[in-house]
Amino acid sequence: MPLTFADPGTPAIPLHVVAEDGLEAWLAAQPEATASWLRATGFTAALGQAAPVPDGAGGVGLAVAGYGTGASRARGRFHLAGAAATLPEGTYRIEGLPPEAAEVEALGWLLSHYAFDRYRAQNAAKARLAAPAGVEAARLEVIAAGEALTRDLVNTPAADLGPDALETACTDLAARFGARAEVIRGGDLIARNLPMIHAVGRAAAQAPRLIDMAWGDAGPALTLVGKGVCFDTGGLNLKPGSSMGLMKKDMGGAATVLGLAHMIMALGLPLRLRVLIPVVENAVSATAFRPGDILTARNGLTVEVNNTDAEGRLVLADALALAAEGTPDLIISMATLTGAARVAVGPDLAPYYTDDSHLATALDAAAARVADPVWRMPFHAPYEAMIEPGIADLDNAPSGGMAGSITAALFLRRFAGGLPYTHFDIYAWQPKPASARPKGGVGMGARALLEALPEVLGL
């Protein structure tokens, strides 16, 4: 089912949203048959509950969705998505929802219809929604489509989404919106001075590459950089099997950037967008890069490779150096970069790094409005020494394991040319099913960024 609202004018079943503390008053105002039915079926207005009420002809006359309590709502998001998943097929019209919650709940309803069915038929929700009054329906449909793109890319295994297929996804997106797309591939990476992307990806069957997409010819310049490691074995520092099982999602940064780019272009934001995605598979063969190797990045900095499993920052470094040469107004990188970030904030928060307090304030407020939680982390300058090994300018994997996400972010900042720079260290995966988020790939931070960009860039 498409992630869209029902066509305007479609007859809709009233869906009353009722909080626990308002249930008795609401029931008292209903016909006796409705109140008796709901009491008999055990409806308590708990969060996630939904109950259809029959009409006299055996159909659904109305439905009720529980909205819980303030405390229960604070422990989650997209509260009405559960109703979408359990109500009978039909089109519903929400009534009684606080206006400030309408946009988030409507988006959650759309996202509840997402199902990754490439390999097996899935049972998606069948309850459609009429767009609530005051909600920008077309905008929410664009956002849902961008999120679905991200999820589809992350969910697809590397056998079907290697570097070739990820390149196709990028060029297809560019063609759809009339963007320019250039691909620098294989040995041309050396000729074009992108040596670390080449070093990381040269051992794989499919050639490493950099995808450079540009859209828009007026307004402030925004460059998005996404980590596109289609599969990460760890290289010669081979991951154990238990750590390799989810590595199809190591291109989650690229997938999230592409979902955000879709939103920006489809909504026609008045800016100049550039998307840079280094695409590799970190594989093992005779040509694999080695622990102890010293690589020279695009900007001339030398990097000692102390762990080939810290490859994401290497490919991002070349892409960031290229981004900086274009002197955009803002560079944002997104990557499934460190396990340390997951230890710090878990799978539900998108930690980000920035030196720009104005951006952080705008982003935090935007994240709260659109239910896309983020958490600011520090570019802690005293830790710079931890990424300086002595034999080279930088160390890609400082020993000791302390502050792993921070040191990775500091490493990346060395390549941003002193320009305004924000880095997201995301997980891109929903480990357990939740409202509007089935287990699997998920976007993190993109909707918050989309909401914040007008204020951050002065659009």
Explain what this protein looks like in three dimensions.
It contains 16 helices and 19 strands. Strands 6, 7, 8, 9, 10, 13, 14, 15 and 17 form a 9-stranded mixed beta sheet that branches. It has a 5-stranded mixed beta sheet with strand order 2-3-1-4-5, with helices on both faces. Helix 9 packs antiparallel against helix 12 and helix 14 packs across helix 16 (446-457). It is an alpha/beta fold and 459 residues long. Helix content is 34%, strand content 20%. It folds into 2 domains: 13-125, Leucine Aminopeptidase, subunit E, domain 1; 142-457, Aminopeptidase (3-Layer(aba) Sandwich), CATH 3.40.630.
- How many whole angstroms does the radius of gyration measure? 24 Å
Helix content: 25-40%
Fourth-level CATH superfamily of the largest domain: Zn peptidases
Specify the CATH class of the largest domain: Alpha Beta
The pLDDT mean sits at: 97
Outline = elongated
When the domains are counted, the total is 2
- Biggest sheet, open or closed, and with what strands and sense? 9 strands, mixed
N-to-C CA distance: 34 Å
